[in-house]
Task: structure prediction
Amino acid sequence: MKKDSPWAWVPTLYFAEGLPYIAVMTLSLVMYKRMGISNTEVALYTGWLNLPWVIKPLWSPFIDLMRTKRWWIVTMQLLIGAALAGIAFLIPADHFFQSTLALFWLMAFASATHDIAADGFYMLGLTPHQQALFVGIRSTFYRLATIAGQGLLIMFAGYLEKSARGIPFAWSMTFLLLSGLFLAVFVYHTFVLPHPKSDRRAATLSASSLWREFLLTFRSFFQKEGIGVALLFMLFYRFPEAQLAKMGIPFLLDPVSEGGLGMTTEQIGFTQGTVGIIGLTIGGILGGIAVSRHGLKHWLWPMVWAISLPDLVYVYLSYFPETSLLWVNVCIFVEQFGYGFGFTAYMMYLIYFSRGTHSTAHYAICTAFMALGMMLPGMAAGWLQEQLGYQLFFIWIMVCCVATFAVTALLKIDPEFGKK
Result:
């Protein structure tokens, strides 16, 4: 394999893009829960960690202006690796919650910046033919990072939790392992990433002119036809899922006496991080195939039902906590498969709405609203669950599905969009 071959860096680059996101969004949630932090605090503070992905369109234009995308990639990887090491060493400290949360914040901003640079570098380092060829490869390795982080690492932490040295030691070693892995990726990419001639600073473009163009792009986005309905859809289509995503893992971890299922950390890693991710991936693939054959409009309502109805499995599990582990795995697979299939409609609509002038920038703004739609409801989910208990909370999630159906009913979509 030649050094400048895309196979040498595209898989590792997108594996590296997925790991810190999972560390911030999932590992932090499981770790804090296992360390005794309440559901209210877990949901509120880890919910704030979505903010860098919400506001990343605000600083993305300046990445071109200041340095090359290659420089941003390797620098952010070094910063993320250092932050992971810092978290590992601070977990046993007295004020671990505040100090590790600060480092998760740093890592979240570094990860969002890394995403911007990596996606831009992908387009600069590959020909249009190679970009089309490797789009599936990059998605696959991002998913593998999800399984590695949400599945294998959590299972590793669960295994170590059984040792005499306890939970803090287990999670400290887990983050130390992740730090070592990420620093190895940093060293690898320092030498292997190519140097495309087009990857250079925008020296001829001043900050003022870039800012002016940036404001014009934002203004054109908010002047698009149907912007009000589009924003409602972006913010409320996943309103139930935004809350469920924050409380799903705490529900599985909490003891039966507190309304949960009392699963171990190892079981969580397998059920949520492996079985669930496989269901999510299969659902997403089938959703993409379905839309490509008949168009988004044809599949819109089946996908709305798919993302909403399977949430009932949590209602069932909350009323029957003694359910066997096999059946729990089946339930999580079904819920995640439905979410993967139904989420396809959401992502396709973002592409549909972003069409036209400034499509790339407008899509980035859409993804910011997508992150905001997950952030705000998720922050309140922990408090709400503690007020209602798990059974009523999951019934509330089903009530929230009304919002998903309501905003979908407002959409107007070209019947031909998405077809071959």
